[in-house]
Amino acid sequence: MHYLIDGYNLLFFGEESKSSLCSRRQTIVQSLQKEFALLHMKGTVVFDGSHQPDEQSGLSYKSPLVIAYSHQGQTADQYILEKLEVAKTPSELTIVTNDKGLSMHARNYGAKSMTIPEFLAQIKKKHHQKKGVVAEKKPSAISERELNRLLKIFEERLDEE
After folding, report:
1. Contact 64, 83 (CB under 8 A)
2. Which end of the chain is more exposed for a tag (fewer CB within 10 A), N or C?
3. Starting from the edge strand earliest in sequence, which strands make up the sheet with 2-6, in order?
4. Which tens digit of pLDDT belongs to each residue from 3-19?
5. Rounded to an integer, what distance in angstroms lies between the CA atom of residue 132 and that of residue 80?
6. Which domains does the chain have, with CATH numbers?
7. Residue 3 three-state SS
8. Are 32 and 65 in contact (CB under 8 A)?
């Protein structure tokens, strides 16, 4: 399974941060890099806008996560849909976004979709499964406490609706 993640959708999920956008982006990328490497997952995080010269590109990382920036005048959603259109086996792709329109388009192409909270819960579940298999637990980039905090925020928002 290859995950196509709506980067800013993930970045802005949860509570507000006073950190700069660049700093927040770097933090989320580093966390995902560690998680994907630890859990043997493959994916692409797509951000709107061009690559920033002071940031590392996905190609500079050694883990199975690629960082992509949409072309000028193109949104991350359009970039993701373009990747779906040319995919030989869209059923092997999972789109991670809270954007209902993008999720619907993904399913129309035959891909799977999941929300940010579902994705975070899946990572948490994989950690628990991995604990049962591996005697020595490696430290997680996204702590269980942080995952629980994000899930609580999502549940509260669902209750409000």
Report:
1. no
2. C
3. 65-69, 42-47, 2-6, 93-96, 112-114
4. 999 998 998 887 677 77
5. 35
6. 2-116 (3.40.50)
7. strand
8. yes
In this structure, what token pair is assigned to residue 104? 């619907």
For 1-57, the pLDDT digits (tens) are 999 999 989 988 876 777 788 888 888 888 888 888 888 899 999 998 765 554 554
What whole-number distance in Å separates Cα of residue 86 and Cα of residue 7? 20
Do residues 3 and 42 make contact, with C-beta atoms less than 8 angstroms apart?
yes
pLDDT value of residue 15: 66
> How far is 16 from 66, CA to CA, in rounded Å?
25
Here the tokens at position 14 are 């949860």
Indicate whether this model's pTM tops 0.70: yes
**Letter for the amino acid at 77?**
D
Task: Output b/e per residue, 84-96; b: 16+ Cβ within 10 A.
Answer: beebeebeebbbb
Q: What is the DSSP string of 57-125?
A: -GGG--SSEEEEEPPTT--HHHHHHHHHHH-S-GGGEEEE-S-HHHHHHHHHTT-EEE-HHHHHHHHHH
The pLDDT score that the predictor gives to residue 65 is 87
